[in-house]
Amino acid sequence: MALNNFEEQIKEKFSSRMIEPSENAWELLEKKMVQKKTNRFNYRYLYGAVAAVFIGIMVMLNFINTDVKNDNEPSVVESNPPTIEDSVTEKYKEQEIDFSKEPVLTQVEETEKEAPKKEDVLIKDNIIQNQEVVEIDNDKTLLMNTKKETLESLASVEQKKDSLIDKKVIEVLASISELNEQNGAVTDAEINALLDKAQKEINAQRILKNNKVDATALLLDVEGEIDRSFRDKVFEAIKNGYSKVKTAVAERNH
Amino acid sequence: MLLKVVQLYKNETDLIKKATKNNREAQHYLFVTYSPKMLSICRQYINDIHYAEDVMISGFSKVFTHLKSFKFEGSFEGWIRKIMVRECISFLRTRKKMTFIEESPQNYKEIAIDAVASLEVDEIQQLIDELPEGYRTVFVMQAIEGYSHKEIAEFLQISEGTSKSQLFKARKMLKENFLKRNTQRNGTK
Fold it and tell me: Which of A37, A101, B15, B24 pairs with A28 at a CA distance of 20 to 30 A?
C-alpha cells in the first residue's frame, strides 16, 4: 500500500514536470530533418548515377561486341568472294526448288479442270476454283519463262567466257610455238609472262564487255592471280601437242 | 466544455495530418506542445540535460519521419513517449553505460520508501541520477512510466527476473542514498 502510494506520488510529480528545451532546439531539429531529406535525395541521385553507369557499361560492351562481329564479317566475305559459278549454282538450286513444286501444281490443275464438269458443285466454289486455276496457270507460265531466260543467259555467259578463254589459249600457245621455233626452247619464265599478259587481257575485256564493275575480275587483276580454268586449258593444250595448236594458228592466219 | 475537448481533438488530428504532409508550421506547433514533457522524460533516463535534449531532438526527428505510421488508435502523446523512451535506451546502449547482470527470479521484498515521495521533483531526480544506468532505467520504466516487467524485459532484451532484481536493487539503493542524504543534511547519524 505504502509502496503504491510512493510510486503514485513520484508519477504525479514527474508527470507534471516540464523542462523547456533550449531556444535553438527547433532550429536544430529543422536542420536535422533537412539533412535527412538531402541525404535521401543524394542517395536517390547516387542510385541513379550507379544505374546510369551500369547502363553505359552495358551499351559499351554491346558496341564492342558488335564491332568485333563486324571486324570478323568482312574477313569471311573476302576469303570466299561470290563467283559466277556460285551464282549459277544458286540459280540452278532455285530452279530445282521450283521444279519440285511443279507436280503439285499440275495435280491441282487437273483437279481444277475436272471440277467444272461435275454438276453438283456449287457456283461459288466454281468461281473461286476457276480464279485459282487462272492464277496457277499464270504462275506456271511465268515460271517457265523465267526458267528459259535464266538458262539462255547462263548459256550465253558460259559461251562468252569459254570463247574468250579459248581465244587467249590459242594466242598463248601460238606465241609459245613461235618462241619455240625461234629459240629452239621455251623457258618457264617466258610461259608465265605470256600467261600473265593473257590473264590481264581477259580480265580487262570482261570488265569492258559487262559494262559493270566485276569485283572478281578487278580482284584478280590486282592480285595478278591466274584463272585456274585458263591455266588448266593452256596446259591441257600443251599436253595434247602442238598439232592442234598449229591448225588453230593456221586457221586464224587464213 | 465537451465541445471544446472535441474541437481540441479535431485540431490535433488536423495538426498531425498536416505535419504528416511535412507542414513545418504544424510540426513546429506539435514540437512546442510536446517538447517540454518529452525532455522531462529524456532527463529521467539521461543525467546530462544537454545529452537529454539531443536525444529528444533526435526522437522528434523520428516522430516526424514516421508520422505516417501513427494510426490514431491510441493517444499521440503515448506514441511520442514510446519513441522517446526507445531513443533514450538506444542512446545509453551506444554509450555502453547500461549493464545488466542476468539473475534468476527471486522473491524480492518490496522496500517502502515513502519518505522519498515527500521530496521535491528535482531532489528525487538527483537521487535517481545517482543510481547505476541499469538500475535507473528499470526503475524509471517501472515506477514512473508504468511499464510491466514483461514490457521492460522486451524493451531492454533482458529476462523478467533480471528486470525484477534490477528494480529491487534500485529501490534499495535509492533508500540508502536518501537516508545518507538526510543524515548529512540533519547532521545526525
Answer: B15
CATH of domain B114-186: 1.10.10.10
pLDDT tens for chain B, residues 1 to 189: 444 444 555 578 888 999 999 899 899 999 999 999 999 999 999 989 999 999 999 999 999 999 999 988 889 999 999 999 999 999 998 887 666 666 655 555 555 666 666 788 888 898 899 999 899 999 999 988 889 999 999 988 899 999 999 998 888 888 888 888 777 766 654
Whether chain B has a CB inside 8 Å of the CB on A223: the answer is no
Q: Does the predicted interface ipTM exceed a cut of 0.90?
A: no
- Dist CA B18 CA A147 (whole Å): 85
> Cα B79 vs. chain centroid, distance in angstroms?
13
Cα B96 → chain centroid: 18
For A18, the closest of B37, B56, B57 (CB atoms) is B37
Q: Is the dihedral of CA B175, B181, B184, B188 positive or negative?
A: negative
Put simply, the answer to whether A5 touches B37 (Cβ < 8 Å) is no
Tell me the C-alpha distance between A69 and B55, whole Å. 63
- Is the distance from CB of A226 to CB of A199 less than 8 angstroms? yes
Estimate to the nearest angstrom the gap between the alpha carbon of A13 and the chain centroid: 93
CA–CA distances in Å: residue A46 to residues A31, A49, A51, A53, A56: 22, 5, 9, 10, 15
Tell me B67's DSSP state: G
DSSP states of A120-181: SS-HHHHHHHHHHHHHHHHHHHHHHHHHHHHHHHHHHHHHHHHHHHHHHHHHHHHHHHHHHH
In this structure, is the dihedral angle defined by the CA atoms of residues A211, A216, A219 and A221, taken in order, positive or negative? negative
- Spell out which residues of chain A touch residue B113, defining contact as CB-CB under 8 Å: 6
Set of chain A residues whose Cβ sits within 8 Å of the Cβ of B75:
none
A124-137: b or e for each residue (b if 16 or more CB lie within 10 Å)? eeeeebeeebeebe
Q: Does A14 touch chain B (CB under 8 A)?
A: yes
Going from N- to C-terminal start, the domains of chain B cover 2-94, 114-186
- Report the distance separating Cα A153 and Cα B176, nearest Å: 123
B2-94, which class in CATH? mainly alpha
CB B36 to CB A28 under 8 A? Answer: no
